[in-house]
Amino acid sequence: MPSIPNTTPAQPRAHAAILVTGATGQVGRRLVPRLLGWREPNEHIRVLVRTQEAADRFAALGAEAVIGDLRETEDRKRALDGVRVVVNAAATFRTPGLTADDMYSVNRDAAVALATESAAAGVERFVQISTNLVYGPGVGRPQREDDELRAEGGYPYAQTKREAEEGIARVRELDVVTLRLAFVYGEGDPHIVAWLPRAADWAAHQRLPMVHHADVAQAVIRAIRTPGIAGRVYNVGDDAALTTAELFALTGREFDLQAAAGRSVEDPWLGVPDTRLAHRELGYRPVYPTAWAAWRDGAL
User: Fold this and answer.
1) SS3 265
2) CA–CA separation, 175 vs 118, rounded Å?
3) 201 Cβ neighbours under 8 A, 6+ residues apart
4) What does the pLDDT read at residue 198?
5) Residue 280 — φ and ψ, nearest 5°?
6) First to last CA, the chain
7) Which of 103, 111, 228, 261 has the most CB atoms at less than 10 Å from its CB?
8) Angle formed at CA 225 by CA 222 and CA 231, multiple of 5 degrees
9) What strands lie across the sheet with 233-236, from one edge to the other?
10) Fold (topology level) of 16-185+212-237+272-287
11) Residue 65: CA atoms inside 13 Å, Cβ hemisphere, count?
């Protein structure tokens, strides 16, 4: 299917489209092929990408591609033409040389603008991909969806995603479902290895809540398909957080247990989510209940 060039407005379509933003990111590039496999008759998957190369790559898979920038109003409007569902997976945080301004412009400002324009375009559901980091400090137990969001300062990514959620929630005319993801990994994603230098200073027993890309995708499709969940928020993670020592062992790296012996865990509940709501309301069941299960199946 040919891509839609950035110089030609998308033509009205009789079919229903699901628009995915952030399709070239670590989450999006693994999500889109799964959505293509799960689409219903007369349902099309559309992506908003910035280059012709990316457009051609997704078109070869069977997706529609609109070339444009999520931060540009006209590009967003072209991408939304004829769309029934939006999955906003766009997020900026792993790119080298990234600034806080970059994060705010994509993670918050463009996301809120996309939600506002989605409401005006008659979009039926808007699935916002967020992060469990929006909770901020722990509260003495796994964090639940109705807990106060206290992420601020220090790490702009968490704050930009929190402010995006707050801004999108003010778009009252839109059916929004929010997925707060744990630490995403799997299928060749370099996230774990990139995280190891930071984790090297942790206590051996500090925990990192995780979720595999396959389970992110199943949460997204359930968020798209499940009726009667407008305004709901769901924590998405696996069944057991991984300790620092396990994180290193999983990747075949040595963790300095002797150096870590005197370290304490300042906040044992930081980011640890309560995922029962997703289980009850979405029927979410992790394909990989632990990172070790993914390791055994060769899915890291």
Assistant:
1) coil
2) 10
3) 263
4) 93
5) -75, -45
6) 31
7) 111
8) 80
9) 64-67, 43-49, 16-21, 83-88, 125-131, 176-181, 233-236
10) Rossmann fold (3.40.50)
11) 24
Give residue for tokens 């062992």.
249
Token duo for residue 268? 């044992």
Q: Where are the domains of the chain?
A: 16-185+212-237+272-287
The amino acid that residue 129 corresponds to is I
**pLDDT-flagged residues of the chain (< 70):** 1-15, 94
Token pair for 166: 């707050």
SS3 15: coil
Per the listing, tokens 């799960």 go with 38
Closest listed residue to residue 58, CA positions, set 83, 33, 25, 34 = 33
CA–CA–CA angle 52, 87, 271 (5° rounding)? 115
Let me know: does 47 contact 66? Beta carbons within 8 Å: yes
Cβ proximity of 80 and 121 under 8 Å: yes
**pTM check: above 0.90:** yes
- Three-class DSSP category at 97: coil
